[in-house]
Hints:
By secondary structure, the protein is mostly helical. The protein has a single domain (25-269), classed as Up-down Bundle (Four Helix Bundle (Hemerythrin (Met), subunit A)). It contains eight helices and two strands, in the order ααααβααβαα. A two-stranded antiparallel ribbon has the order 1-2. It is globular and about 50 Å long.
Amino acid sequence: MQEPESSTNDATPVLLRKRRKGIYILPNLFTLAALFGGFYAIVMAMNERFDLAAIGVFFAMVLDSLDGRVARMTNTQSAFGEQMDSLSDMVSFGAAPALIAYEWGLKGLGRWGWIAAFVYCACAALRLARFNVNTAVVDKRYFQGLPSPAAAALVTGFIWIMTELDIKGPAVAWPMAVLAVYAGLTMVSNVPFYSFKDLHMKKSVPFVVVVLIALGIAVINIHPPTVLFATFVVYGISGYLVYFWRKFKGHPTSVISTSTDEPDERGLHR
């Protein structure tokens, strides 16, 4: 007995639902936590708790150093994560330190105070924008200019120490303005700063390295504001030492490893 023909047409196209593109939760959680650190710092500065404001920025710095590593270790890098990280950095290491410095001491300098704060904030934005477009052409061993987290550590570290010592007023407002302008202009300079990106965490190290790390943690705990600020002062000067040493030796000072898409701009990287 012949079976009846099927009423459905086998040639009918099947509509497949396009899968929505999601985001990776783990690295973006670190980025959001870093963003919270910057937001927390601004709120604390508005409440004149400048010690907690500085701690918020350093907290954001630690988390910012982890989100990229977590993304690479879990193979969850994405364009969304890169943009999110950049926006978080602008808040935590650009706007937050500038506002904290202004509320802490620069406000008393009048127009010079907010100009110094704006120079820092604007340079942080320019530095982050340049970092995003120069990622493919910069030598990975070095940063082109002072990285924004280190610049934020210089500004907020100084405020943290002065707050701990209960020193404020015009006597420290002008040094704060100079430090903010120095950190801002160094961010947009072409001075090479060591990036530590060629250190691989997965490789084995001698036992003495672990001992030195433990000693470093112990030293920081002696007086965190002083030790951290001193560390970043040394780092903030190290780039200029490398620059002038290379120039003295006749070595190239640029960290641009390949030509850019705009040949007219090559001279800017020297």
